[in-house]
Amino acid sequence: MEIPMRTISEPVISPMSKQINGNPVEGHMALTLVVILAASACGGVFAFYSKLGAIILSVALFLLLYLAINIKFSIEKTFVSPVQVVLRGGYGFPLQMPYKNGHIFILSILAAITTCEWIFAFRNVALGIVLSLVLAILVYFIVSVFKWDQEFVNASESLTLIPLYILFTSSLPWFFLATEVRLPAVYSIIIALCAWHIYQRGLQLKDLGFKRENLLPVLLLGVVLGVQVGMIEFFVINVEPMYPGFSVVYLLRDFFYMLLFVGLAEEVLFRRIIQRDLIKIFGYHEGIFLQAALFGVMHLTWRSNLELFFTFTVGLVLGYFYERTGNLTGPVVMHGVGNTMLVAVMPYIVS
Q: How many Å apart are CA 91 and CA 328, to the nearest integer?
């Protein structure tokens, strides 16, 4: 998805670190986000898994936040070598840390996300949630303290939306909601995360890729591909019917949910935000490949190797669909129609 190494021109500091640079408004927003994440993780662990573990986690996060707020960082502009950054802590001890290659950093985030999702799906849900929180805080910390090329900052903060996705969708008490409104409620959180990220980046709605040009062919192609994808995926994971019998009312409701919540949220997140940032770093084909791999990883909760391969392949199709047309409407429609076929049509046809 990305191109090879590049030289660092004028390194910049992440927008998340504006308080360090003297902008308290941006800094307070970042701090507020961290506090919300910490509270969500602690609350989820306390409610569902272990009260003692939640208490220990709360204490550890409190100490971490206290340390982060009270340590004053200064990044020297005189380097021992062109590839080193000197970090001096507020307590007077100098730390000389090597300036890591940005490509390795981005790939490390992808590997860490894969590890968190695998642990969440196959080993320990609580540990997966906690690791996702730690990963999000760690990435924000690194891009705030060290100077990076802007493209690496953008890509790292885009990828951090994935552990936030895991954290919010897993640790909040969704069981209080009725089944029929749970899905739009969960994906509303994802849409809100994407909207917050888009606002932070200063992007406009027109930059998201929703265009009127060639709209009809794009819509028709999205419908055709979505029908085929939904039919194939049904035989991959064999979804059970959600209702006793087929109903047009349920079909229309599921289509509305899948199109305007699931399809919209995941296409904006994976194709518009993450894929575009990865392409700027690694290149056209490599960026689409990495995005599709991440899209497949996020379906590990189905615990099916075949579904992992299938969703990776669909991620490639959606990625190329978006890049070749320059219009996100087609992938959103394909995604929504495919999921509707999967859960609201095929189970009743086959049964």
A: 49
